[in-house]
Batch of 2 targets.
Target 1
Amino acid sequence: MIENLAIENNLPALQVVVPLLLAPIAALLTVPFLSWLVAMAGALFCLYSSITLFLKVSSGGTINYYMGGWLPPYGIEYVIDGASSFMIVIISFMGLIATIYAYTSLKFEISKNSQSKVYGMWLLALGGLLGLVTTGDAFNLFVFLEISSLSSVTLVALGANKDKRALTAAFNYLLIGAVGATFYVIGVGLLYSVTGTLNIADLTIKLSELSDNNAVKAGVSFIIIGLMVKAAIYPLHIWLPAAYTFAPTAVSVLLTATATKAALYVLARILFTLLSNADEFTHIILQWVFLPASIIAIFFGTIRAIYENDIKKLLAFSSLSQIGYITIGLSLGTASGIMASFIHIANHSMMKAALFMGIGSISILSNQRVKLNSLQGLGQSMPITSICLTIVILSLLGLPLTIGFISKIFLLKAVFNHGNWPVLFIIVLTSFLAMGYAWKLIEQIWMKEPNENSIKFIEKPSLYIPMIVLAFLNIVLGIYTFPVVNGALKSSEAIFWKVLS
Amino acid sequence: MIHGILGIWNYWIVIILMMTGLFIVISRHNLVKKMVGLTIFQTSVFLFYISLGKVQGGTAPILTGIKETLYSNPLPHVLILTAIVVGVATTALGLALILRIKNEFGTIEENEIAAINTKENSQ
């Protein structure tokens, strides 16, 4: 009994429970700095537990944790396998970096009396996302989906201190997200009515005998549409640009690095693990829904980004097109495609988080929204931020020796092996199109003279240190590719178990 | 045929409510009405789950000691209890946001808010 209570044995539950329990403490403390310390403690604990679990899984295989000792299919099960352990490492690492950045940036962007409460919501979002990727129960997944999205909505709405449009952005996010989550519940209900189980592993076995059942097809379609809303895949992306644009910077960093990525992971799980035996149906979804949607998303996102003047919105549209690259990898339906998607999930969260941090620092120091012309001559007034931004922009373009290059290479290799030439051509073409908006930024930063009214800003270490870490990782992981590529390989093996069995 | 359609009338009600709710969410400009639509939409799903769990002639799942008692399935009802809590939280957050929107924009009509936003964008 005593061994069962040891911390190491209960990490799968603790990494979700600790942030959820710390959330009210952070919200009740009245001193923002103390709340931030609580949030930091939560984020550090999550990183510790996720790395421990990742190492445990890579040496000893899948961990199944039964909540309260109730065995599945009746109890709730947490599954830490190759894919979910990789995802919790990404989420908790990015969560920690965003939390470090949050203290100074939120101090500037949010009114003083709501500063402590922010960290309560922050920890709820983090705990919800970690639960989302580890749970093995379809209904429990819905609860975590709502915990994370309701707290993100609150965080987005806090941008109202700077710009009241954050409120309408948050309201649309709430409304569209709630409809998406309800679609997910309808789907789970339909699957439950046919199989009588909610445990995902058990569902997989029961569904493999029923792949021609219409209720199953309807249920799965509802689930996929609901998750596509949360992952902001093209036609269902409407909430994303406004939410990312008007949220406080630290919140944009957290959401772009973790929230959509967690939803994409769950989507991959449903498509390839749950439906692993319904080949024909999965093929139809991938070929006729995911592939066209991702191609349109890439073009739409890139072109809107090229014509955008507000830099935060430009980054939001760029996120949209990058999500398109991730879903192209999924739509191939091969193990190497899924691996490319997971590499890009990890890499894109590092790139986009660093970009949002850089733009956020500029807007905090100049105390205004960052437009294209406010970047003029930034290389002279803010050298550290400019160098970091340049590295990350080059990485986003996919230059060699950066993580963006690794993403592109693996994606192109996966498409090449699949033999889909038009898609290969589209990826190469859109990579050049992305130069349209990326070059625009670099040109403004380095090749224009500063405005006469721009002063030399004093850069704050608490703002640029997390950004330097990410820019550094952009290069280091681009040269020493093993951690990300190995993690993604393990993920694709865990998700695509049909290939192995 | 008619018996088949009427025999599952509870599911017809679910579908009608679901479509009504979704239509209100999409078509109305008033944000409060949108929240009403969302609540109707969510309630239809609650009804769907409750219908799933009901066994005709079944009683509440409490052990009576009598063998061969027919019980309704309690699990969907428990799930919906959770979903209702989530729904209440969503509604509360939505209404709180509408209050703030009313304070900041002076209106809760979506098209008027959009007009204010485009006006400020062009300035």
Note: The two ends of chain A are 36 Å apart (CA to CA).
Target 2
Amino acid sequence: MSRTLAEEDILKVYRETIRPLYAYVSRRVGGDKSLAEDLVQDTWMRALNSWPGRGLPDEPLAWLVRVARNTLVSHFRRHQPELIDPASIAIEDERFSPTAPDTAAVISWGLARLRRAHADVLGDFYFDGKSVGEIAAARSLSERAVEGRLRRARAKLKTQLERIARPRDTARALPQTETEHAPHTRTK
Amino acid sequence: MRHTHEPSDDFVAKLEREITREVRRRHQPMPWPQWLPQTRLAATLALIALMVASMGIGAAAMAAGYAAQGNERRNQLTTSYEQRADLARQRLAIANDELKAAERQVSVGMATAMSVLEGRMKVAEADAQLKSLQLQLEEIRITGLEPRNEASAPRVAGRDFVSERLRIEMSVPEMALSLEQEHVRDAQNRFAVGMADGVDVESASVRMIEMQTALLTFRKKLDIRQKFLVGPVDAVETELRILEAEAEQRTKSIAPKLALARKEVDRLTGRVDIGAATRVDVSLATLKRLQLETDLAKADLDLSLVRQRIAQHRSGR
């Protein structure tokens, strides 16, 4: 890490990272603009608190994303989303993608309550749209290992989401046995 | 058309302005509070004053701690010596009662004058012990420490407690000497009328010499103490000279006892020949003589060693 921290250096980093950082956060809040802006601003304020003492990180975007992830977890641990219809979040359906703010909020709320390894792999899969192969390559794992981890993570997430499922809709939820072992065939 | 997950230009610009403002704010030095010294010299002086004040507070805290410890030790010592003084008072009261009883018996002819003298001796001992403890209590109340009885102890608040106690303790051998002188007269009277033999007179004389020697030693100690206080003798020599005085006392006390023991061996040996004593009596007397000869040799050795050390000290070795 460099300990030089001039105004120009910080602004240069800001201009280089603001868009990927915003995209990372925005996807996890389903495009909720005001929430995404708040969380990105909060992430940057944390950077300004940390960097003057420790210097600029070698990989500023990776640092910001990591802090943004923690900020998201903190936010979703404090705020419980509206009760949902489980049918609207078919997390075991390979085509499911939480693009709407309410479904993204529900998924993020659930991920905030999972182990980091599970939450990260699901976040890559659902929000960043990465394929199993891409996740495996990024994490130096075999595709088979990622598939197993995704399966276990989904099961954990499903258990979490059942806590906020609307009772009257519970009967309409997809039977677990139908999709429990669905293959992850997303390709990019 | 802008993608859903693209930040608005307004937001990007606004956050950049905010970051710029925040970075500049953090780069500005903190304003120096008005209550702090405004110049380098004033700051230095203030720092020195702060250090001095801190040292003062630390020293005061340590002094308070030591004072608290000292007070606690003083209280413990005072309590202990007050208890001893109470016991001494009780012993004195008992001795006084016994003396009065002896005087009553003498007045009605049921006891000899000697028992009154012995009663007075016990009263003198108890009285001396009580007065000595009272002096020690006074010293503890002043110093908060155990009383010091060495001849080289310093004065306490201008008072010479060591000499005061020596004079009080000296009253005991003074009274004992009076008693022994009376014993000698009594023995001589009984010898004159054939009720006692020469050994009884000589035994009483030996005890009288012993008390005279003890009295003489007390006077010598007082003299050594005074020489220490006025300056010509240092603390080491003072203590050595006290040891010398005590060794001399032992030598002078043992010598007449040994002379008496030798006479007793001769007397018993002569009586064995006429059947008035047994060989066991002679052996016991001989053993006593040998013990006294050993004691005397040891006392002589102690005296020689102390004198040698005094000589070495004076020569600076």
Note: Chain A has two domains: 7-78, 86-179.
